[in-house]
Amino acid sequence: MAQAQAQVPHPPLEGAQLVIGTIAVSLAVFMNVLDTSIANVSIPSISGDLGVSSDQGTWVITSFAVANAISVPLTGWLTDRIGQVRLFMASIVLFVISSWLCGLAPTLPFLLASRVLQGAVAGPMIPLSQTLLLASYPRAKAPMALSMWAMTTLIAPVAGPILGGWISDNISWPWIFYVNIPVGMIAAAATWTIFRNRDSVIRKAPIDGVGLGLLIVWVGSLQVMLDKGKDLDWFSSTTVVVLALVAVIALAFFIVWELTAEHPVVDLSLFGRRNFTGGTIALSIGYGLYFGNLVLLPLWLQTDIGYTATEAGLVMAPVGLFAVLLSPITGKILPRTDPRYIATLSFLVFALCFWMRSRYTTGVDTNSLLIPTLIQGIGMAGFFIPLVSITLSGLPGNRIPAASGLSNFVRIMCGGIGTSIFQTAWDHRTIVHHARLAAQANVYNPVFDQSIRQMGAAGFSQSQAYGLFNTMATQQAAQLGVNDLFYMSAGIFVALIALIWITKPERAGGDAGAAAAAAH
């Protein structure tokens, strides 16, 4: 009977139900993704108010990231045991409750415990949002469902720092968590109204305790290592070395166990499918580059160009303009074309944007900052939709939640890895360039000698002149370092195009349509 029920698809939603259902799912995703970045700029306020150091305050970010990374790949298993609609509803309600607890937190340990709960319950929300949207739209309009999902996923990380900075400056830091309460309540009410009779079949699969334990160990170790590596000077720290070893060993055991377990907690056999592997890797590395640069650019603007946090956020804001305008268009043309062409064009646009940024100087003007940001929105409109379509192409319906959860898990991990690598690489390249510039600071260099003489003529003492030169060299070194990373990002995006073309999306009335048909 259960098998027969599993084969009967729910009909697509229509009219007002479709609109309300799409808004409900999108609000939940926006709230979720927003919380991955909204707290970043508020750490000084949180640390000061709770009487802890900034280093301790960063655990507010780390605790959420670790719990979230662990729970995302469990989506498939939890869906089997609870049902996708019940699990999605539970995620929203518990997210609202944990957000309320975060805002009430009187101490750092209480706040960290609330953030762990918040990150854990947030995990299944994004993969299930894809599943619910694909199952709600008619097969021919499935790309439109993905475009709605992509817009919220792309805009929220940009809006997070802007909104978080404004709230911290003008109200108080607890409100970066309280804003989730009305949004979550609306999303929960609308979700239950529209989807309560559209749940998936529940299967009481036994829990893979060993796999779950290994997952928690290796993901937790890796995430803490990535978040704390820069502060601890990476592998010169015993703590980082131990965390790395634990992560590698636990990962090795995890892979072997999951591939041989009868009921694995994470379905690694999905990587045996060409479309899933190629699409997931291309999407995840591309997202890691995007997210790494999303952190790097505002950081550089604030530390070296003199922008405030709000000004740096506003420079990033126009990226959403073309992303919002063009995502629905991408959704419309996707069924009539090969998604690999759209993804290739997207990656080329990203490469162009990062190449343009690699030409920046310390005297960069606002227009030069805004133009690549605007153009990047074009690339973002064709980034998620075709790659998600390729990744889910050809999968049977009962594997969609597990595939979406695993793909999102890899993407989120690559986002964290990208952030850590970019910050560390920028420091390294800045030091290298500063050493090269400082090597030119000698009396045998006529340009340097003339500059020091001019400073002396302007009334600077020799020590002041040398100090000013060092300040200018530091700023220039940071500029050259960030340019190196922009240029490298452009090259990697071009190289990733090869991964896109190892896939062979199944054509069944449109690739995203095929995914939707599978979801049905």
Task: Name the CATH architecture of the largest domain.
Answer: Up-down Bundle
Form type: globular
- What integer is the average pLDDT? 81
Number of helices: 24
Helix and strand run: HHHHHHHHHHHHHHHHHHHHHHHH
Gyration radius, rounded:
24 Å
The total of beta strands comes to: 0
> Structural class of the secondary elements?
mainly alpha
State the separation between the terminal residues, measured CA to CA.
Answer: 18 Å
CATH topology title of the largest domain: Growth Hormone, Chain: A
Beta fraction: under 5%
| CATH level 1 class label of the largest domain | Mainly Alpha
The level of helicity is: over 70%
Largest sheet: none
Please give the domain count: 4
Query: Which runs of at least 5 residues are low in confidence (pLDDT < 50)?
Result: 1-7, 508-520
CATH superfamily of the largest domain: MFS general substrate transporter like domains
Description of the structure:
It comes from Paraburkholderia metrosideri. Belongs to the major facilitator superfamily. EmrB family. InterPro entries: EmrB-like, MFS, MFS_dom, MFS_trans_sf. It holds the Pfam family MFS_1. With 520 residues, the protein is mainly alpha-helical. It has four domains: 11-206, Growth Hormone, Chain: A (Up-down Bundle); 208-264; 267-426 and 487-520, MFS general substrate transporter like domains (Growth Hormone, Chain: A); 431-477, no CATH class. 76% of the residues lie in helices and 0% in strands. It contains 24 helices and no strands.
